[in-house]
């Protein structure tokens, strides 16, 4: 029932964008929650060159958004924080394969409201404290899966498991830290850059693979030209510069 109501809500979200002229095109973008702030700026600057394309965003964990698309929820463009979720949609031919492209990279940091001393060692810090650590849910949130893998690589997962607080998406991990519900949190470096409350960050060791954000146009989108136009803007030098301003890194070998 919850899934059904979620799909109905998405449909209403699209139908609710009725305050536009007859010539406006409406575009629904399913975007990872860690892209929330940068997409607001992206929308503002895109609207300056394409004023007749109205953007609506549906934010959530990449796995949740992928599941919605699999169930037939309306969407025109998928911006994922997870290559795995994009590959699952590709295997089901639910996205335009030719449009798949990585557009940003990220990395993990340990975040706190307080600054860390320059000599702070990650392992010593997390092992010699009783403080709670917020992370994404490992089974359903890409940030959580990346965090678990990094902690396992450092042989820290079992030692810290009783002190971990799980969040439904990357943005909720940030909220837990900013609100004080967790003294520490493993978040994306891009979220640390834009947070006004987080003052301490420490690189998380054990990250063996890059965190790559891929995007693609939805195969059955009825707004292919508009979706392609916004997707090309995100991957353009202008879009890449906006992503860099909000703390994201360019794909290795490419200049923003």
UniProtKB/TrEMBL annotation:
Coiled coil: none annotated. Keywords: Metal-binding, Molybdenum, Signal. It holds the Pfam family SBP_bac_11. It comes from the Bacteria. GO terms for molecular function: metal ion binding; molybdate ion binding; tungstate binding. GO terms for biological process: molybdate ion transport. Residues 1-22 form the signal peptide. Molybdate binds at residues 34, 62, 188. Belongs to the bacterial solute-binding protein ModA family. This is Molybdate ABC transporter substrate-binding protein. It comes from Planococcus halocryophilus.
